[in-house]
Amino acid sequence: MALQLRVYVPPHPLIRHWLAVSRDVGTPSALFRTAMTELGRWLTYEAIREWMPTLETQVQTPLAECPATLIDPNVPMVMVPILRAGLGLLDGAQTMLPLASIYHLGIVRNEETLQPSFYLNKLPDRLDPKAHILILDTMLATGGTLTAALNELVNRGADLSLTRVVSVVAAAPALQSLSEQFPALTVYTATIDEGLNQNGYIVPGLGDAGDRSFGT
Ligand code: URA
């Protein structure tokens, strides 16, 4: 069977609540950052279900030995926040994956062409092919930034079937483009919005997630 992009919108009231707070134009920057942290936490919680590498073992309770499941420390877990806005999701995501290695990517969109370019790339030359990778990319508008990030990861040996994306708002054009280019990928997002305006902003979206996070 041909692979197909999987997109999940977890029906969790906390995700809906913090999405509403982040969308509201009246939300001040400090509360917006809280919303991003909480969305990072709960979307990561959902995204790592059936993704986290585990191992089956036995533990001795005070009363008896019993079967147990532990997180497998031998499989590398990696998080890739896409700056600037992805930094907002990182604190919450890290509470779920405290042992993950974090490789920052700074990617900026040209305001006119909407083409992405890198200003920071902390990825190692080679990734372990078994690495479980979680990309934090807050706004999937055209998908251009995420495409650039995924190409970098694939060039370094990433297995996209072990790669998940956490985003807050995903627009239909981004999902269409990702499904054509990266059918092995899985995306977790708080919402799917219809489209983009002429400046490449998602509508209704939540505005510029980087500016709102950092008060710029
Ligand atoms: N990046 C943002 O921060 N907001 C959008 O709507 C699109 C891209």
Explain the overall architecture.
The protein has 216 residues and is α/β, with parallel strands linked by helices. It has a single domain, classed as Rossmann fold. The strands form three sheets. Strands 1, 4, 5, 6, 7, 8, 9, 10 and 11 form a nine-stranded mixed β-sheet that branches. It has a two-stranded antiparallel ribbon with strand order 2-3. The termini are far apart. 36% of the residues are buried. The model has no long low-confidence stretch (mean pLDDT 96). The site of uracil has 9 residues, from helix 6.
What is the CATH-assigned architecture?
3-Layer(aba) Sandwich
List of distinct ligands in this structure: uracil
How does the helix and strand content classify structurally? alpha/beta
The stretches of 5 or more residues where confidence is low (pLDDT under 50) are: none
Our measurement of the CA-to-CA distance between the termini, rounded to an integer number of angstroms, reads: 47 Å
CATH class: Alpha Beta
| Annotated CATH topology | Rossmann fold
Quick recap of the structure?
This protein is α/β, with parallel strands linked by helices and 216 residues long.
